[in-house]
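User: You have something folded?
Assistant:
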Amino acid sequence: MNVSFEQLKSMVVFSQVVEQGSLSGAAKHIGLSRAVVSYHLKKLEAHLSVKLLNRSTRSISLTEEGKAYYQSCKVIAQQAFNANRQIENMKSEPVGLIRITCPVNAGLETIVPALNEFKVLYPKIELDVMLTDEIVNIINQGFDLAIRGAPLVDSSLQATKLCVLTTCLCGSPDYFERNGRPSSPADLSSHDWVIYKPLKKVLELKKGARSFSIEMKGSITTNNASARTAFIEGGHGIGRVPTYDAWPKVKQGTLETVLDDYHLSDINIYGVFPPGAADSKKLRLLLDFLKVYFDKQISQMSLSKTHFNQ
């Protein structure tokens, strides 16, 4: 059976329908109308004289023949993708689009400033940045990179550690004036907390060989890091805050740190990407740049903090 150029296109369309989970999703992903995607599927099934997909108004599923055929179509689509990437990597100046997703506060405070500098170095690389505190499915939604503060759960993804962030315990001067400053971990249990949803409600502190576990209780809970810090500045309780976020406010006098001689668990920041995406020259450049950028920023913050404490 001969394979025409039109059939090769239909095979790629079919593989995208399977991977995106719907005709509409595939149409959006590859830039075709839903009608064109449907046309390719019907033509492919007619040419093969088999049914590849079971379709209803709300879902699709592969037939046995469709499962077998998809494996071959997937290889063809991947080889075409790899060929384009190889040409991209051969270009002297990197070009193309990088789609990035990251948490709102970390994005505004650290990622966007980093991308500002990156864009100056590589002006022909396009950036599409989505700030959200929701964990998005980067494969289904077509992202090249996600910035996350937790290790991988989905083993189908890959990750590289970008930096390690320290955290501190903070409250406003007004809050401490009204409620007193905790001088030991035991004092923390009697304080109000501003609780950040993505983190555990049990706080772990260490000092030498000793460990302490404190259950955080409070009347304010939020899933947004900027809101958490604003509530703490507003005097509504103590909170655990990344040092990069807290320290400028400590210098301004709107926050004060407590129990600085106790160690809180660090936050490992990862760059998460689809399998094979690190073969892209532009993504490798961005990952390498972010590592260097974060190292520099953390060093500068440490120096600033030391100077401030003197």
Summary: Residues 153 and 159 are 11 Å apart (CA to CA). The first strand starts at residue 53 and ends at 55. Confidence is low (pLDDT under 50) at residues 303-310. The first helix runs from residue 5 to 20.
